[in-house]
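Re-run with default settings, no changes from the original entry. Doing this only to confirm the output is reproducible before filing.
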Amino acid sequence: MKTPVTNIADLRALARRRVPRAFFEYADRGSYDETTLHENRRALDRLQLRQRVMQDVDNRSLATTIIGSPASMPLAIAPTGLTGLQHGSGEIHGARAAAQAGIPFCLSTMSICSIEQVHAASDTPFWFQVYVMRDRGFTRELIQRARAADCSALMLTADLTVQGQRHREIKNGLSVPPKITLRNLFDIASKPRWAWHVLQAPSRSFGNLEGRIGGADSLTTLAQWIANQFDPTLNWDDLAWIRELWPGKLIIKGILDPEDARLAAAHGVDAIVVSNHGGRQLDGAPGSIDVLASIVEAVDGRTEVLFDSGITSGQDLLKALALGARAGLIGKAFLYGLGAGGQGGVAQAIELIRRELSVTMALTGQRDAAHISPDILWRRT
């Protein structure tokens, strides 16, 4: 009998069986000793919910707005690199599943399918995440391509100008496009469905970089490649240049300190994403949820606050909303669903979180996801 999928952990287990180890662990693991990766989970688990009874919780609404646009629930799919190597055409599957669910999808600069390929395959506008390269002309071209594809928001990732070392990527000999070696021969051969979907996809390398930046076809030396291509001189003054190129909604991802949050608000960005890059950058940093409330207080309504790093359930999402986030972003949970079952798996991941959020709202006496009371969190005296 087939075991039913009841939570994100079940999707993770399926993805682990169906995706080659190098790509699964790229999505699953963190940097250095993975202290921050695990702290994201511990910090969310430390927060306890107040059970309330005898409240009218019929006709609950999960609808909200995210940077001014309607969403069916306070959730978006975060930008993730190598998405199309969790499952062939992964970015397209993610964009379509998000559109059907009525939530935003963000495409990464380091995607396998290009901006143009995702735009051609999806009728719904999506967000685009950009890294600033040393070659500012290429960065300008990326932003222009996002405008041409009618992307509805630009997300600038600020916390990866220098890469934190991820030990598993080095040990696994991660490469893009995938290469058959003695090390991974059995692993890939034992996953023919994964190989079939990847072979049928429109791209198996970095679609946004292909033919434009040298050395972008190998992740064996990703840290060296990033050191050569990503611009460590990125600073707040560069926002004026980006604003000249991008007149639409602008989001900054990677805010983990109240002072940086105040600076972002002062520069007039439309939203910030409180994020430690899923524990994949600065190891030893706090869990994102532990700094969320102080950042919400620091910006004082001057910019929208989104939350990232650790959401694997509707309960996690509700805790972030209670601490002041407008919405949450899912990265790992999205990739687990994708690896487990393509577009259907992504849809399943979204619906699991949607149902969990609705039920947990009811059990904490809440009816409107756009106005979650901070009183739902248990405060010890």
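The beta strands are 64-66, 69-71, 75-77, 106-107, 127-130, 153-157, 249-255, 271-274, 304-307, 327-330. The mean pLDDT is 94.
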